[in-house]
Amino acid sequence: MSGDNDGDVTAQLNARGDVAVVVPAAGAGVRLGPGAPKALRLLDGEPLLVHAVRRTAAAPSVRMIVVAAPPADVEAVHALLSPVAPVVVVAGGAERQDSVAAALAVVPDDIDIVLVHDAARCLAPADLFERVAAAVRAGADAVIPALPVVDTIKEVAADGRVLGTVDRSVLRAVQTPQGFRAPVLRAAHAAAADLHTDDAGAVEKLGRPVICVPGSDFALKVTRPLDLALATHLLTLET
Ligand SMILES: Nc1ccn([C@@H]2O[C@H](COP(=O)(O)OP(=O)(O)OP(=O)(O)O)[C@@H](O)[C@H]2O)c(=O)n1
Ligand SMILES: C[C@](O)(CO)[C@H](O)COP(=O)(O)O
């Protein structure tokens, strides 16, 4: 772990904030193609992770940020982020949920609201963090930002045969930051027997309610090379 003081997890951003944000940033970025770990690839001359942490730190509710970095890069990531915001950096794991669990483990028990945010959604705006946190503060166990699905969605067999058309009015594309009452997120991770692709999925398996709030086009996940081009353009549209 690397914090403002090694072993000290109180690296505080805004003492009046009531939210800790966990930022998994330890992925390889295989779908982006060969190169550095995805969170360290450049967008407009700065690593995706720097963009993500800058916007996270701009949300007034955020008291603490914990980043899960590739294990070999913990010290380098701490040095990279220190000029941007006070952060604690831990070693991530083999899967995204392992990285989230490693970061969650250092969030102090007196912080009641935890948001989990992908470094890859590096342009998610501060007001999205506030919207998600406000919904948790208002009483929800788990809150996810979501957008309507714009394409027609087909269910397809392994051989390519179309089995049917799904009613897209009930579908949503889900983003991060996802917000949780801290004990609920901890219980969901403790109970998770299988891999989950998002943290809300683990909460759903506990049988606890998850609610949606409107997402943001700026919270797109940089996954494939085209997404980097889209993110570069989105930067020019930020207000
Ligand atoms: N073992 C892992 C895998 C992913 N992540 C993080 O989880 C977020 C969402 O994951 P994704 O976009 O799928 O990133 P990668 O796993 O790096 O992408 P790919 O599957 O293309 O390798 C990213 O910020 C990524 O760094 C992580 O912290 N630890
Ligand atoms: C957490 C997430 O970003 C929500 O959409 C998504 O599930 C991550 O999925 P990935 O397959 O790890 O990119």
UniProtKB/TrEMBL annotation:
Belongs to the IspD/TarI cytidylyltransferase family. IspD subfamily. The record marks R168, K221 as: Positions MEP for the nucleophilic attack. Its EC number is 2.7.7.60. This is 2-C-methyl-D-erythritol 4-phosphate cytidylyltransferase. Gene3D superfamilies: Spore Coat Polysaccharide Biosynthesis Protein SpsA, Chain A. Pathway: Isoprenoid biosynthesis; isopentenyl diphosphate biosynthesis via DXP pathway; isopentenyl diphosphate from 1-deoxy-D-xylulose 5-phosphate: step 2/6. It comes from Actinoplanes xinjiangensis. Transmembrane segments: none annotated. Keywords: Isoprene biosynthesis, Nucleotidyltransferase, Transferase. NCBIfam families: ispD. It catalyses: 2-C-methyl-D-erythritol 4-phosphate + CTP + H(+) = 4-CDP-2-C-methyl-D-erythritol + diphosphate. PANTHER family: 2-C-METHYL-D-ERYTHRITOL 4-PHOSPHATE CYTIDYLYLTRANSFERASE, CHLOROPLASTIC. One of its GO terms (molecular function) is 2-C-methyl-D-erythritol 4-phosphate cytidylyltransferase activity. Catalyzes the formation of 4-diphosphocytidyl-2-C-methyl-D-erythritol from CTP and 2-C-methyl-D-erythritol 4-phosphate (MEP). The lineage of its organism: Bacteria, Bacillati, Actinomycetota, Actinomycetes, Micromonosporales. It comes from the Bacteria. GO terms for biological process: isopentenyl diphosphate biosynthetic process, methylerythritol 4-phosphate pathway. The record marks R31, K38 as: Transition state stabilizer. PROSITE patterns: ISPD.
